[in-house]
Structure prediction request, 215 residues.
Amino acid sequence: MKMTSKAVVLLSGGLDSATTLYAAHAQGYQTYCLIFDYGQRHAKEILCAKKLAQVTKSDFKIVKIGLPWGGSALTDKKIALPKNRKNIPNEIPVTYVPARNIIFLSFAASYAEAVGAGAIFIGANAIDYSGYPDCRPSFYEAFAKVMKRGLKTGVSGKMIKIYTPLIRKTKAQIIRMGHKLGVPYELTWSCYAGGKKPCGVCDSCVLRAKGFADV
Prediction:
């Protein structure tokens, strides 16, 4: 399989993934966006992701998957979202979705191999984040080894690379980067609550507001 300048971008519709999409574009990649509908309470982000893909003239797929066992405040409305946490502790919160990025990256690897993409971009961040284990550099290093062992491209010596351009940036640094890239942040959605307007008090809203304030 011949690799080209194609890249699969995991696009949630949030601030980080939008910046990552524009970063991939800036590097000259033809982008293929992968958008997941996994039963998240903040489903509005799917519409934002679609708009971002359209604005950047990216091919995109919306993939609906079921996680009927719950286990996260993002997929189970019976679990309350953390609110008004000014100092978010470095621990795994109830908004963690079990194995979410493992699942997403597995789909991305399949999509990349099918369309002949040599890269996968994901907006993971290990600085201003909520303590998720699948947002840490060591996880992506490990998953790269999985792809090397488990993909046709990997065993053929044609590695699909995982790029995490935001992994060590603060939210403010991400926003500054996005401004330089021309990211339309007005099209993004970060709130976990799932209302018509951002709640302003969930962890995601707090981190977003802090980032813009710091800028």
